[in-house]
Specification:
With 340 residues, this protein is an alpha+beta fold. It has ten helices and 16 strands. The strands form three sheets. A six-stranded antiparallel β-sheet has the order 1-2-5-10-7-8, with no helix packed on it. A hairpin with a 7-residue loop joins strand 3 and strand 4. Helix 5 crosses helix 10, helix 6 packs parallel to helix 7 and helix 7 runs parallel beside helix 8.
Amino acid sequence: MIYEKVELHNIEDLVSVDGFPGLRMQRIPESVRLKLNPDAQIQMCHSACAEIRFESDHPVSIELSCPKGLGIVEVFYGPFQSPERYEIKDDISVIHVPAPDQMTMYDQYKLSNLPFSPKVCRLLMAGDAMYIHGIKGYNCRPPNRDELPRLRYLAYGTSITEHGNATAPHLTYVEQVGIRLGADVINLGCGGSAFCEPEIADYIAARTDWNFATLALSVNMLKFPLSFFYERASYMINTICRSNPRRPVICITLFPYSREFGDSFIGMEDKGSPDDYREALHKAVQDCPCENVYLLEGSEVLNNVGGLSSDLLHPGDQGMIFMGENLARQINPLIKKFYR
């Protein structure tokens, strides 16, 4: 969406909240958010690879706050990472982006084949809900479509999709896939609350701004009976696949996690074994009549458990990189069938 002089990528609504100045940036519209479970309503306000994008030949200032937690902002020029890293807290922070003098000194022709134009300043965000207060700058404009990647990749899943224990937004497996496939990223990860509600399935299906999707379904649902998981996963898969047969939809079974390494506490509320839920997802994909649905094993995406953090649940940086490499390699031949 466009806000003042910039594009807010992976942000679909700006909401005024009583008692808080500025506008809360949300990854889904308020009308959809309020139909989800209470935890998902909170998580969908998290930044999760959202971006503020613009192009300008003058300095630009962006005012942000994070009233109930901590937000992280990293600066990129196209694909090139700048050293700046900002922590956004309760008080309004002003991010000063200087004129991109260094980027303009290079031969632009030799950089013209990059998915992102180096002229595009990208503020990548992660962390808790952030509020935007204003943009100041001259000759500032949103990027043109030809300055951005041709393909767009939408990802739905748990906290592992949202951010996991990655130390920076570009280190999530979703961004790592996007980097390797030259695709823009729409991250709809929903930590602890990816319950595959019909409302989020309908919303994803109705969006026309993505070319391929991954659905990581879902360690969050082990608290529900297998029949309920199958029913919701089937609805989501069928609804999204039928929305456009030219968009590949890749379903991913549960990633390896702590219960399988001897943690009895996390599994106390589980209604079945992890393999039971993997098999249920297999069946949901097999029962889908669409030709644009695919299934990948989570154990082949995260094929090195040493990439997990010490909780043996959330991948750290190295695990995210493993996942991005493996997932991109497996997705690449699938999307080539549709986009040459």
